Amino acid sequence: MSFIDMAMDDVREKGMAPEARYDLVVVSAKVGDTKAGDRKKLSVVIDILGGEFEPIFETFVFPNKKDKEENEGRNNELFILSIKRFLYLFGIPWEASGWNLDTLSGATAENILVSCQKGDDGVERNKITYPRLPEGS
User: pTM of the full predicted structure?
Assistant: First the structure.
């Protein structure tokens, strides 16, 4: 096998952010299919400013027709509410019928509570604590 030339010593693991408030910036956002292929999802990478921390990876699932029909639409509302909280936090405007994906990259949020949480898989990840939306939002 041939030697692969790559700067391996230049790359190190970044640490988890201690629970605190940080400024954040959206590095990338893309829409794709879920593993099951039955709905779309929004995948977002967010950098924590002010330190060398692991980025935050957020995934938001889009509602589909089945969600509207089952559980009196409650799943549909929960999916949309999680996206709406994210948009609000980063100052992204929305309309009654949706929002513009192109406005996400580079969006910033200030003084946001971030903590390290262990997932069901046992892996620690930096997570955002999303506040409830203001009344009327």
Answer: 0.85
Q: What three-state secondary structure class fits 5?
A: coil
Q: Which helix (H) or strand (E) holds 42?
A: strand 40-48
Distance from C-alpha of 32 to C-alpha of 4, rounded to nearest angstrom: 31
Question: Per-residue pLDDT tens for 75-124?
Answer: 778 889 999 999 999 999 999 999 999 999 999 999 999 999 998 999 99
The whole-angstrom separation of Cα 63 and Cα 34 is: 12
Buried (b) or exposed (e) across 36-74, using 16+ Cβ within 10 A? eeeeeebebebbbeeeebbbbebebbebeeebeeeeeee
